């Protein structure tokens, strides 16, 4: 069985923990709990005839008071960069974190997730911004931890990228 470490990275309150909970346990809670340090979960997927054990590191969100400890990223096979569609500044934070992650662990597969797709009427993004990101060649998936939309796709897609690397 293959084991692959994947880190959840992003600003605080973007939905990293909710995405993991939806993927692992098929649940969603409206309550907000701040992640302290790192929370680790596992899920096994069957990909291309291989059992792949994903070890998901849900890192606390970065804000003006606390920076993500880059040492948590070591050994990662990939990462998920989470943006809250209702807060424009989380995209800027994601760009900054992507650069830091790449400087720390090199170029590994990642997916940029625009979360809270169920709240698009409150989104602070223009369609051109998404087009600009896609033109960089980044994988972008729109998700809703609340409804489950796109959540399975994110983890399956990243796992495939890691295995086929």
Description:
With 165 residues, the chain is of the alpha/beta class. The chain has a single domain (2-163), classed as 3-Layer(aba) Sandwich (Rossmann fold), CATH 3.40.50.300. 30% of the residues lie in helices and 28% in strands. It is built from 4 helices and 6 strands, in the order E-H-E-E-E-H-E-H-E-H. The chain has helices spanning 16-25, 89-105, 127-135, 151-163, and strands at residues 2-10, 38-47, 50-59, 78-84, 110-115, 139-142. A 6-stranded mixed beta sheet has the order 2-3-1-4-5-6, with helices on both faces. Helix 2 links the parallel strand 4 (78-84) and strand 5 (110-115). The longest helix has 17 residues, at 89-105. The radius of gyration is 15 Å and the shape is globular. The model has no long low-confidence stretch (mean pLDDT 91).
Topology:
Layout lengths: L1 E9 L5 H10 L12 E10 L2 E10 L18 E7 L4 H17 L4 E6 L11 H9 L3 E4 L8 H13 L2
Parallel strand pairs: 1-3, 1-4, 4-5, 5-6
Antiparallel strand pairs: 2-3
Protein name: Ras-related GTP-binding protein
Organism: Nostoc piscinale CENA21
InterPro entries: P-loop_NTPase (IPR027417), Rab (IPR050227), Small_GTP-bd (IPR005225), Small_GTPase (IPR001806)
Q: How many domains, as an integer?
A: 1
CATH superfamily: P-loop containing nucleotide triphosphate hydrolases
User: Oligomeric status of the shown chains?
Assistant: single chain
Beta-strand segment tally: 6
The neighbouring-strand order within the major sheet is 2-3-1-4-5-6
SSE sequence, one letter per element: EHEEEHEHEH
Gross geometry: globular
**Biggest β-sheet, characterized?**
6 strands, mixed
Indicate the percent of residues in helices: 25-40%
- CATH class, named Alpha Beta
- SS element count, helices: 4
Mean pLDDT: 91
User: How much of the residues is beta strand, in percent?
Assistant: 25-35%
Q: State the end-to-end distance.
A: 17 Å
User: What is the fold named in CATH at topology level?
Assistant: Rossmann fold
What is the alpha-carbon Rg in Å?
A: 15 Å
Low-confidence stretches: none
Structural class: alpha/beta
CATH architecture: 3-Layer(aba) Sandwich
């Amino acid at each position: 069985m293959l084991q692959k470490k994947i880190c959840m990275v992003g600003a605080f309150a973007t939905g990293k923990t909710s995405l993991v909970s939806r993927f692992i346990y098929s649940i969603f809670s409206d309550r907000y709990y701040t992640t302290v340090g790192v929370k680790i979960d596992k899920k096994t997927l069957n990909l291309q005839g291989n059992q792949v054990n994903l070890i998901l590191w849900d890192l606390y969100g970065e804000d003006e008071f606390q920076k993500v400890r880059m040492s948590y990223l070591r050994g990662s096979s990939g990462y998920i960069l989470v943006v809250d569609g209702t807060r424009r500044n989380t995209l800027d934070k994601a760009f900054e974190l992507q650069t830091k992650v790449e400087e720390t662990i090199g170029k590994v597969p990642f997916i940029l997730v625009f979360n809270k797709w169920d709240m698009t009427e409150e989104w602070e993004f223009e369609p051109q911004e998404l087009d600009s990101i896609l033109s960089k060649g980044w994988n972008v998936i729109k998700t809703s931890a609340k409804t489950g939309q796109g959540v399975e796709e994110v983890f399956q897609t990243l796992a495939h990228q890691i295995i086929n690397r």
